[in-house]
Amino acid sequence: MKKASYIACKDASFSYEGTTVVSGIDFELERGDYLCVVGENGSGKSTLVHGLLGLKQPCTGEIQRAEELCKGAVGYLPQQRALQRSFPTSVMEVVLSGRLSSKGFFSFYNKHDRSLACEVLEKLEISSLASCVFGELSGGQQQRVLLARALVAASDGLKLLILDEPMNGLDPHSKQELYELIAKLNKEGLTLVMVTHDVNAAVSAANKILLLDSKQEFFGSTHDFQHTARGRDLMRDSCGGHCAVCGLAVHDHD
Amino acid sequence: MIDVLTNMLSYGFIQRALIVGLLVSVCAALLGVSLVLKRFSMIGDGLAHVGFGSLAVATAFNAAPLAVSLPVTVLAAFLLLRLSERGRIKGDAALALVSASAVAIGVFVISMTSGMNTDVDNYLFGSILSLSSGDVILSVALCLIVLACFILLYNRIFAVVFDEAYARATGMPVNVYTTVLALLTALTIVVGMRLMGALLISSLIIFPALSSMNINRRFKSVSICAVGVSVVCYLIGITLSFVLATPVGATIVLVNLAVFILSLGTRWLRAFARSQRVK
What we know:
Chain A is α/β, with parallel strands linked by helices. Chain A is built from 8 helices and 9 strands.
């Protein structure tokens, strides 16, 4: 039986002020998928993210969303910026602010919001940081806090989480931990879309790959991606060069 | 000491200045935290200049000062935000443009009509005598509106100031909140300007927030402490100005400056103590 698709892009293109940034995006995302969007800087990855979040409408084609993906069921971890370093705020304040998207114009946090925030902090193993100052945490801890903020957005569980280059600026150890954490969330049933430029990490983490370079270059399973010429090149550029699935060196495996 | 206070409070104009001033201090401190963090500090200054321009024009044409400067300043707040969002003229340049023009228009109009007089001086540097009892009622109403909006929108304002990109991505109407913030600032400035003076009112927005951020690291405690700092500085300032017969606006700013330096000292001492502990 075919699984219901969560998000389907039908030959979508996006443009800014008349100039097409990325075109020909055509893929389907199913429940429980872990999709990595890879490509160089300026290849249209962030634009696609805006499209998936519903902030930007495609200029041609369309994006279809399943009904479950209503407001609040899609979480977002934006690219990190330096400005938050000196911002006076506690971890709890940051996490609670994630609740706002499912609230009305005027909004105060209630008991439910607080218990939800505590639950998520527990799940991400950062309960002990709840009253810490956000700006004094390490980069990896800050990302976990922002992940927590994304996770609390939906009261009845998040369905889809979109991560925009979450590993930027993290040391290898924190990266590894964050990858493991994200993989755990995916195993628990959360559908993931992660933008990254680390192709090798994408290949070992995700089950589907979308390669962009001003247009869609590839979409398919991770295994298939490793056996395309382009995929091999991109992976050899970094290191290794062995198919993560069948273990063969990718250049003599066709 | 008690004598001085009872003597001071027996004057009607001091009572009025206390009521309005304290409310303005509270509003300015609350808004100030968000404005400083959002790098909007100079909007207060720009709006105060616009306020001065409109007050001067109102005086020249014998119109009610608040009735003219209120809509003009609110409009300017709108305009300043739009100008800085469009990006053709950078935000700080747009501010300088608008504030200089507003002051120039004010001075020009007033010298064509009544000439530079004590009224103008009072608008620039503030006067404790400037508030009538009608002004007090209007000021109290405006301040209460500002306070109510701020408290009701507190969590949203935090979200927008902390991470605008995320707020936008989750469908929050970020521009609405930024505009509300600017409008509330405009109201606070118009009300506080005649007491503190156009040149000094923005300090009421910036100083308490900065002092408070030196000693607190959480948004809620920063906000509450800023209100405390602002109110205490206002009370000390107005008492000093009464005793020493100095202009009230300048005295309050100097008290704020002293508190800021103290808070900076506290912060350095703490950082020093921490580095010693690490060693």
